[in-house]
């Protein structure tokens, strides 16, 4: 048998193997249609509460609980009432500052701690790793009273600085473990080359290691910023009497200031408070998913 005949025979065998029966094609098409329909249905179920939430920002008091009432979307009276009776932009600025400063220090301190934990062979450093891990099982509620007394004793209670310190202290343990796991995947040969070139420990970390930790940093930022943005318990306890309240506290105070709650302006305040995080998620979701996948593989 010639080589040409052998090649033709092999090609026929491949075509026969790749040929899909007509029944199987129809079954795959039906399954694709069903999966697409299920996806759209699930998307509609998740989107419906948000749509109702948005429509409620335009409803008057008489129709606020009527789910099928379609309000006039050009009527911005609820938004005007909310902006007239709250310090929305001051609260927004304060919340942005708290989140930005908190995440900056968490990333800076946790990445350095994770780098040392992953590279050092000293026994007390290993104990630090165990200490960070143990910190994850202690309920945050058990430390509220000591922290409140500490804030009063240091005269930092009802200041954003004290709230940021608590956030950083609470978030550093988990982030350090995450950075330590990620740093172990970075080859030590890179650091040895930097040492040979004359870099010190700090130069090696900031010029070599920290840029390589971008996926881990993106994961930490995108998964924790929502907690700090939407936190109500922390400001309620440690920042209750400040001149300007964070957004979630401003919602609570705005509701408490009215003897009978007018839900339209409250919904408007909640909607405007949620917009920054919605935009943040839309612009960073690909980094969030990429970071989670990288962390799951290399961690």
From TrEMBL:
One Pfam family named in its UniProt record: BPD_transp_1
Chain ranges passing through the membrane: 37-55, 88-117, 129-148, 160-183, 204-229, 264-283
Keyword annotations from UniProtKB, A to Z: Cell membrane, Membrane, Transmembrane, Transmembrane helix, Transport
Membrane topology type: Multi-pass membrane protein
Keyword Glycoprotein: no
Stretches for region Disordered: 1-21
Subcellular location, record wording: Cell membrane
Ranges where the ABC transmembrane type-1 domain occurs: 92-284
UniProt xrefs under InterPro entries: MetI-like (IPR000515), MetI-like_sf (IPR035906)
The family this protein is said to belong to: Belongs to the binding-protein-dependent transport system permease family.
Stated name of the protein: Carbohydrate ABC transporter permease
Organism: Cohnella hashimotonis
